[in-house]
Amino acid sequence: MLDGTGLKLVVSDIDGCLSVDKGIPFDPSAMAALREHQDRAREGIGLPITLCSGRGQPYMEAIGQFLGVTEPMICEAGSMLFDPRDDSVTLNPLINDDHLEAMRELRDKLRRSFNGRNIRFEVGKEICLSINPFPFPMGSEELENAVAGLLQETMDLADGKLFNVTRSSCSVDVTPKGVDKASGIAMLSERIGVSPEDMVGIGDSYNDLSFLKAVGASACPENGVQLIKDLVKYVSPERHILGVLDIIAHYS
């Protein structure tokens, strides 16, 4: 086991880490075990966990409430910080009115371009655009090819000077330039007074790359993509949430 001295907080992605992926039920016993860990962490036993995801604030609030998360959560791939302690939402300070207008224009442009195709724009988000090709089985070669193709199409349509375009295992995410999960980590650090060097990051896919580089310790479950496995300091032998539980134990 690595020395966890100085580490104060675990920051975990959701899809591919806590869950198998979008639309697939959570493992109830493993989620209960993670909640039990959170209860112990509040008593000073082990590292508390918070969340960092491309998901929207309402979804993350619900997951966080189930798990007993009390620290701020990074939502919409770094676009905002939700703090359950005072029920506040803070936009990333890098976002201004020009960014918001550019995102609206890009959303309309992408909708026109993808009209009539089996492509879904994820609802419930205020800033980040998440675009999903469907229907494809999770983890299938067909889904991988569809996401890779959609990523290239989106990059061709989005001005690289204005937008970040990244991907996960099942979607393409677009945020204003400079806004990513790493900038979300900076917001979290400032809010709670914990250095990124004292955080453990857990991610599994390409859009986790920036925040895993920003933290002091990084890890992924066994199902992580090879790019992430090559980057992180610890790769769990377990998949998904069982991997998250193993990583927490590893660094505790």
Automatic annotation (TrEMBL):
InterPro entries: HAD-like_sf, HAD_sf. One of its GO terms (cellular component) is cytosol. GO terms for molecular function: magnesium ion binding; phosphatase activity. Pfam families: Hydrolase_3. Signal peptide: none annotated. SUPFAM superfamilies: HAD-like. This is Phosphoglycolate phosphatase. It comes from Dethiosulfovibrio salsuginis.
